[in-house]
């Protein structure tokens, strides 16, 4: 008997700043007895999830080990490799095709790892190149695969129909992603689609706080990109100050529009009320939420999937405000938070004022939000469901190496 074995593919996790929210599920997989190897498809940046480093096989796309493994796979099954390569050309746009071609040698290496380890399952995050790598590796190794779909990754339509028909299951983290896939790739096989939210660590049940900091602290944890709409928050802050509502805004993140946002804060005369904190690692943000340093979390984006920053706020009993985009309403609706339309600074200011000035509303929202996270997002139950879907429900018989053979 042996522990179930999972190859876990992401874009860069555990390196870089974009995939850090995968960490709770990886830790829980290990805690539940799954042997995990993490394979970042395009590893870049510094290590950001330190306890996952020992699980990671970090190989850049241009690496002698990748090249040798690709050659071995080609010599082993030339027809199968040729067929898999040809499948990359099925209706993808030129930019998408180029990304898939660049990742193809890595897919051959992953097939070799999956067969030689041997893995019981391959799971990929993102509907783009990571799941293309998993699709090809599965075809060549015989190891079943699956994918977690987010939001922005759907729009590129990277072999979506092929992936939907090949994966053991396609996991959507919100209903809004299902609807977007249907619009982007109509006619996809939906028989293996699953709605399963992202899992987050569930801290001890907090005591909702009617008392706030002086002034109240509003946190926005997001990269400085256009769609995050830091400008909407800046205008809303100006409106609050004009109404005599004191507030201190913390902006945690980095990105190309940081200087532009700093300039806007100066122009609006709100610079003393706004703190630019740079990239902040998740444990520090969690500490702020857990110890009452933050009174309100805001994310006024134009486009989102299901933001982990808002899920984590609710888990810690901190009220949150988001916009009616992506899956945000599935999280904050029904009294679990406040929802406003995108790019509506006055609506955002009104929602912030309501929560900041109405203690009973803050408590009510905090309790409802925490209850939703407990029901739908607790990492232990989410990972248990993932294991069931992947056939990793318990210890499995050791796989003979020749069980992963693929006919040439």
Task: Report on the architecture of this protein.
α1 packs across α15 (379-390), α2 (64-76) packs across α3 (78-86) and α2 crosses α4. This protein folds into two domains: 5-199 and 379-404, Rossmann fold (3-Layer(aba) Sandwich), CATH 3.40.50; 217-376, Rossmann fold. Helix content is 42%, strand content 13%. The protein has 408 residues and is α/β, with parallel strands linked by helices.
Architecture blueprint of SSEs:
Blueprint: E1 5-10, H1 23-31, E2 35-40, H2 64-76, H3 78-86, H4 94-116, E3 121-125, H5 129-141, E4 145-149, H6 160-166, E5 169-172, H7 175-184, E6 193-195, E7 217-221, H8 230-242, E8 248-252, H9 258-267, E9 274-278, H10 282-290, E10 296-299, H11 308-315, E11 320-323, H12 328-332, E12 338-340, H13 345-357, H14 359-376, H15 379-390
Parallel strand pairs: 1-2, 1-3, 3-4, 4-5, 5-6, 7-8, 7-10, 8-9, 10-11, 11-12
Helix pairs in contact: 1-15, 2-3, 2-4, 4-5, 8-13
Structural features:
single chain, Rossmann fold, alpha/beta, 6-stranded parallel sheet, 408 residues
Largest sheet: 6 strands, parallel
| Helix fraction bin | 40-55%
CATH H-tier superfamily of the largest domain: Glycogen Phosphorylase B
- CATH architecture classification of the largest domain: 3-Layer(aba) Sandwich
Short description:
42% of the residues lie in helices and 13% in strands. With 408 residues, the chain is an alpha/beta fold. It folds into 2 domains: 5-199 and 379-404, Rossmann fold (3-Layer(aba) Sandwich), CATH 3.40.50.2000; 217-376, Rossmann fold (3-Layer(aba) Sandwich).
């Amino acid at each position: 008997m042996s522990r179930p074995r999972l190859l876990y593919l992401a874009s860069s996790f555990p390196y870089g700043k974009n995939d850090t929210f995968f960490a709770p599920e990886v830790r829980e997989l290990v805690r539940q007895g799954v042997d995990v190897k993490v394979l970042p498809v395009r590893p870049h940046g510094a290590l950001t999830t330190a306890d996952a480093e020992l699980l990671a096989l970090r190989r850049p796309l241009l690496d002698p080990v990748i090249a040798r493994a690709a050659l071995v796979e080609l010599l082993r099954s030339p027809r199968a490799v040729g067929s898999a390569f040809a499948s990359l050309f099925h209706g993808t746009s030129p930019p998408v095709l180029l990304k898939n071609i660049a990742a193809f040698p890595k897919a051959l290496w992953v097939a070799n790892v999956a067969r030689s380890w041997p893995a019981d399952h391959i799971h990929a995050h993102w509907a783009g190149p990571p799941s293309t790598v998993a699709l090809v590796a599965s075809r060549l190794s015989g190891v079943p695969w699956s994918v977690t779909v987010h939001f922005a990754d759907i729009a590129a339509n990277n072999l979506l129909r092929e992936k939907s028909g090949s994966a053991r299951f396609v996991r959507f983290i919100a209903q809004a992603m299902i609807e977007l896939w249907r619009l982007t790739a109509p006619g996809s096989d939906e028989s293996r689609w699953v709605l399963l939210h992202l899992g987050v660590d569930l801290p001890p049940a907090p005591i909702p706080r009617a008392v706030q900091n002086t002034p109240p602290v509003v946190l926005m944890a997001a990269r400085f990109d256009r769609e995050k709409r830091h400008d909407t928050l800046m205008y809303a802050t100006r409106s609050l100050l004009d109404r005599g509502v004191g507030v201190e805004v913390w902006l945690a993140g980095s990105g190309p529009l940081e200087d532009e946002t700093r300039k806007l804060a100066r122009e609006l005369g709100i610079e003393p009320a706004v703190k630019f904190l740079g990239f902040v690692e998740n444990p520090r943000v969690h500490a702020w939420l857990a110890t009452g340093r933050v009174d309100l979390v805001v994310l006024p984006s134009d486009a989102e999937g299901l933001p982990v920053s808002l899920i984590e706020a609710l888990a810690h009993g901190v009220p949150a405000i988001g916009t009616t985009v992506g899956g945000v309403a599935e999280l904050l609706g029904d009294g679990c938070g406040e929802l406003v339309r995108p790019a509506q600074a006055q609506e955002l200011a009104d929602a912030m004022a309501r929560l900041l000035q109405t203690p009973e509303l803050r408590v009510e929202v905090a309790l409802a939000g925490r209850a939703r996270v407990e029901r739908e997002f607790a990492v232990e139950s989410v990972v248990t469901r993932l294991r069931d879907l992947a056939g990793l429900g318990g210890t499995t018989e050791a796989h003979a190496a020749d069980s992963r053979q693929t006919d040439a």
